[in-house]
Design a protein that fits this description.
Layout: E1 11-13, H1 19-28, H2 30-46, E2 52-57, E3 63-67, H3 69-78, E4 85-91, E5 94-97
Parallel strand pairs: 1-3, 2-4
Antiparallel strand pairs: 2-3, 4-5
Helix pairs in contact: 1-2, 2-3
């Protein structure tokens, strides 16, 4: 998945209004800053060891980071072009990690 898609209107952060909010919070809080700093050191050497988990809402055509906000921020700061991911649909019938191809058409820029 291209890291450039981690932006408003495409792949949004779940816990924050915008990615800039996540960047600011992680820079302010010692524990978050330590996590990101460790990732900034390890990713160039070992790559991203844990894929980012994306959630796709069946109800709204939304794609968001369900797990991996610190990893996403580190990837953006390092300007890593692509990242490994897994994904799941959020449907009335439940949630499970998908094996089907990712629905990239949902990432078209929305107004």
């Amino acid at each position: 998945m291209p890291t450039a898609l981690l932006r408003t209107g495409q792949i949004r952060p779940t816990e924050y209004a915008k990615w800039a909010d996540a960047h600011r919070r992680f820079a302010r809080r010692d524990q978050d800053r330590r996590i990101v700093d460790e990732l900034l050191e390890s990713i160039p050497i070992d790559g991203l060891q844990e894929p980012i988990t994306l959630g796709v809402s069946d109800r709204y055509p939304d794609v968001y980071v369900a797990d991996g906000h610190h990893r996403a921020v580190a990837l953006m700061r390092l300007r890593i072009p692509r990242f490994p991911f897994r994904w799941y649909w959020i449907k009335n019938s439940g949630v499970h990690i998908e094996d089907d191809p990712f629905p990239y058409h949902l990432l078209e820029q929305r107004p």
